Prior knowledge:
Blueprint: H1 2-11, H2 15-28, H3 36-51, H4 55-71, H5 78-90, H6 94-109
Amino acid sequence: MSGFLGMALHRAGRLEQALEMYDGALASVRGVGPANTVQYALAGAGHVTLLLGDADRAGQLFAGSHAVARRLGAEGDPRAAVGEGLLARERGAAATARERLTFAQQLLAGGARAGVDRRRCGRPGPPRRGRR
């Protein structure tokens, strides 16, 4: 529950309080093992930490979120990938920012796990066949 409260506080601009809530969510599930709650709290804490100016810690939190997502069977966490894109942009690494934001889109679309060729992302492909 504190992860959701952290997100609400984050959106309201109450960053220090949001970080406390994310940290609380992480502490409450520390012994449980990998869970969606953990990856979401890590990514959320990473975004808040980035906004508070601690880019190195934000990067560590995003990496941790991806690690949990991979242990749960995904290729990564889209929210963490967005954070990595923002972090790269802040550091002036436009190509890395574009790659991480594209990866986030692929994760959200379900294409990353399915082995989508990342070099074609954003380019038109053959028409999809499906129900009409």
